[in-house]
Amino acid sequence: ATVNINGAHIVGISSKDVVAVGANGHEITKEDVERVEDAATVVQLPANPEIIEVTPRSYQLDGQENIKDPLGMTGVRLEVDAHVITALAPHVKNLEKTCEMTSTRPNTFVLSGLAAARAVLTDQQMENGVLLVDIGTSTTNLVVFDEGDLQHVSVIPVGGNNVTNDLAIGLKTDLDVAEQVKLQHAVAHSGLRRGGAEQVNVKVGETEHEFSTEDIDMIVDARLEEIFEQINQELKNIGRAAKLPGGVVLTGGGAQLKGIADYAKQALQLSSRVGVPAGLGGVSEEVSTPAFAVASGLMISDLLGNDS
């Protein structure tokens, strides 16, 4: 199986390295490319690192820059500019053990955000510059592409469950009731409500609960503000705040919150839309939603892996 990996321990590192590939007239082979990519993984990593994926941005051959595919070219000095994604080794080992308990053999691990990106982003968006935000249960994955290449990955340890927990605490109710409040009545901003604040009802089991939309909106807005402030800070750190022509694409269960695209547009000052999986024939409408972007991306990653 192709398995997703997630968590705030994920780190993306830019790396460059160079190898000698032979005398004049040497034709670059697949082995040469693999060797220079392996060399790029020899970087200063956090304690107990495990390399999940190495994504080449471009190659340089004897001073010629911005080569996307050096196979078949001739030269003596091959350099790669790559993005190396690492995870903490104990997390990887625990995930492997979990797979073994279900008689599943991991073929490869893929970062959740990258899987979602493969399912919803177009080549044109990645060329123009785009941010993918996958709002999951307990994390929010950020993936930035520009000029067709992976530029940055990050995982924020906040997700949809935090909104549910906040509602449970703020409304003084049970978690299962808070989850239904989120699913049925939460919105990304109160401007979406017609007629202003009102009382809404949620029925769980045989019990009906009543809440004020004003209280719901205040609680949800506080958590969204925190999430999008962290997203904006990540973009500032890499010099791309409000500077991605392809805008932001939102996926994950959290992207199904009403009005989330408008909220993201205002908070990040970028064009925004909710992304749904594409490129898989025969997929039912039930899974053609933002919540299934990662799962769909894993299927695409598996197909790409088999092709290679």
Descriptive report:
- Helices cover 36% and strands 28% of the residues.
- By secondary structure, it is of the alpha/beta class.
- A five-stranded mixed beta sheet has the order 9-8-7-12-13, sandwiched between helices.
- A hairpin with a 2-residue loop joins strand 3 and strand 4 (64-67).
- Helix 5 packs across helix 6 and helix 5 (160-170) packs antiparallel against helix 7.
- The relative contact order is 0.14.
Helix and strand content put the structural class at alpha/beta
Number of E strands? 13
Radius of gyration: 22 Å
Shape: elongated
Point out poorly predicted stretches.
none
Strand content: 25-35%
The helical percent reads 25-40%
Distance between the termini: 16 Å
Largest sheet: 5 strands, mixed
State the helix count: 9
Strand order of the largest sheet: 9-8-7-12-13
User: What is the mean predicted local confidence, pLDDT?
Assistant: 92
Order of helices and strands: EEHEEEHEHHEEEHHEEHEHEH
SSE inventory with pairings:
Elements: E1 2-5, E2 11-20, H1 30-40, E3 49-61, E4 64-67, E5 77-88, H2 89-101, E6 108-111, H3 112-120, H4 123-128, E7 130-135, E8 140-146, E9 149-156, H5 160-170, H6 175-185, E10 199-204, E11 207-212, H7 213-237, E12 248-251, H8 260-268, E13 272-274, H9 293-307
Parallel strand pairs: 1-6, 7-12, 12-13
Antiparallel strand pairs: 2-5, 3-4, 3-5, 7-8, 8-9, 10-11
